[in-house]
Amino acid sequence: MDRMRHGLWTLLLGSALLWLAAEPTFYEADTLFAWREVMTQLSGVLAFGCMSAAMVLALRLRPVERLFGGLDKTYRLHKWLGIGALVFALTHWLWVKGPKWAVQLGWITRPPRGPRPEPSNAIEAAFRAVRGLAETMGEWAFYAAVPLLLIALLRRVPYHVFAKLHRMIPLLFLVFAFHALVLVKFSYWGTQLGALLALEIVAGVCAAAVSLAGRIGVARRILGRLEAVEPLPGAGALALTVAPQRWPGHTAGQFAFLTLDVREKAHPFTIASVWDERSPRLSFVVKALGDFTRSLPQRLRPGQEVRIEGPYGGFTFADEAPRQIWVSGGVGVTPFLAALQQKALRGSPSCPVDYFHSLTAPDEAAEAWLRALAEAAGVALHLVWPQRDGRLTGERIRAAVPQWREASLWFCGPEGFGEALLRDFSAQGFDVRRRFHRELFAFR
After folding, report:
1. In the chain, pLDDT over 90 holds for what percent of residues?
2. How far apart are CA 127 and CA 131, in angstroms?
3. For residue 363, how many other CB atoms are within 10 A of its CB?
4. Residue 303 Ramachandran class (φ > 0 left, ψ -120 to 50 alpha, else beta)
5. Phi, psi of 237 (to 5 degrees)
6. Which is nearest to 162 in space by CA: 73, 4, 291, 306?
7. Residue 289's pLDDT band (cuts 50, 70, 90)
8. Which of 226, 180, 221 has its CA nearest to residue 204?
9. Is the pLDDT of residue 201 over 80?
10. CA 291 to CA 294: how far, in whole Å?
11. Buried/exposed code over 68-106 (b: 16+ C-beta within 10 A; e: otherwise)
């Protein structure tokens, strides 16, 4: 989380400081319309910076994923940038429109405009010639982008609706890039701010082109065949077994994007198996959470072709702590299944592990399977069914693991459960910034 916050604030504060250095009239603004001019430029710079960074993060680039500690963290930052773009774009629009409305209502009088300086060169003259077009296109793109961004933030909107509408964002970004190129104050281009804006325009336009061409993640895509589809009644999920044509291997805890239907966008699922060249298979546990996943039992058949993209993620159980505590709830068991298999293959675990899993419903077969995996891996397993045993809480975990202060905690499960554990352990003095690890699988 710290890397995401640092990335966001570095972009915003860095852009604001470069703008301040490039805009000397900021210190001289003493009227509403003078403030309108400078604040329109500042809000536009910040809005476009958020848009461009969000477009680049959407490319799922390996260096960016490593920088922020996993693709789940990258997508969370992508979401924050989308919110920032919406807020700053709305601010920009209000600074443009607000004073005009005030003049029309007779609340204020617009001061007389002086003569506009002549263009200093042919490029500035060309920009000025299309200024009206850039303003109109930017305004209408804003009106189109606002509902699309709100839909992206509203989880009640079905995923397939969100995915289809979200494909329009790169096209709108190209309009915003033209708007920014023409309407940013021309004097900025000779400053460090101009260099930043040029980089943002080029990077964002390239990212938009890759997205519109459907080439995001193409270098990590492979084909596979669905071998088995097994219901898991106790977990309310499906277990899928896929045979990939080729696979680079993965670390326990990572995930991949699966395209199970060419009419649907790829969906992220955690890999529930360890990679073994002797038995080249990938397992996924799919929870029926949305309209797409609920329809899978009727749509999937062994033998059908699927597309796999990955692996992604930084939830890999790698740290320097002398002890680990694993906690999962419901379908959050998936990365730990792979981790248990990985430890069993390696022999004795690298450090003592206590694994707590909160069951959705009692399932003797699933419990027996988990116990066998944990025994083979040398992991202490604690199974909790809330209706029978009471809720799994931080206090309960600490009572079972007296050495919890020296451990790291790895969590995957419902977001509310994770937040409650984070607050609970933080209140007890646990170093949650360094030792509390979790997947942020809510990509919206």
Report:
1. 61
2. 6
3. 16
4. left
5. -145, 175
6. 291
7. low
8. 180
9. yes
10. 5
11. bbbbbbbbbbbbbbbebbbebbebbbebbeebeeeeeee
Decide if 214 contacts 189 (C-beta within 8 A): no
pLDDT confidence of residue 234: 58
* Spatial separation of the C-alpha atoms in residues 310 and 252, rounded to whole Å: 13
Separation of alpha carbons 179 and 200, rounded Å: 13
pTM: 0.88
Q: Which residue's structure tokens are 């899993």?
A: 357
Whole-number Cα distances in Å, 69 to 49, 93, 203, 287, 438: 22, 35, 22, 25, 11
Integer Cα distance of 338 and 328 in angstroms? 13
pLDDT at 253 over 70: yes
Residue 263 has pLDDT above 90, yes or no: no
Distant-in-sequence, close-in-space partners of 25: CB < 8 Å, separation ≥ 6: 34, 37, 38
